[in-house]
Design brief:
CATH class: Alpha Beta
Number of domains: 1
Structural class: alpha+beta
CATH architecture: 2-Layer Sandwich
Helix content: 25-40%
Order of helices and strands: HEHEEH
Low-confidence stretches: none
């Protein structure tokens, strides 16, 4: 029960945000390979100002507070 309660209130921080689906998958795969737990949230917008592209989705990768620096270092190595 104690672990469950800790999990409920654990903070997750955004370590990466992109609108490029390829970069999103590269960053996500890097976290997977290093065994870092993450969550994904998306923000999709469709407004008249962006007619050329239509709908735009922003992908946010979030990690636990204690994994922020490690995740940042892993993700932000040259995405290639």
């Amino acid at each position: 029960m104690h672990q469950f309660m800790i999990g409920l209130f654990q903070k997750w921080e955004i370590v990466y945000a992109t609108q490029n689906i390829d970069d999103y998958y590269k960053a996500k795969n890097r976290l997977n390979k290093k065994g870092i737990s993450y969550k994904v949230s998306t923000l999709t917008t469709n407004n008249g100002k962006n007619r050329r592209k239509g709908t735009v989705t922003t992908y946010h990768l979030k990690v636990k507070e204690e994994d922020v620096q490690r995740s940042y270092d892993i993700i932000h190595q040259r995405l290639a």
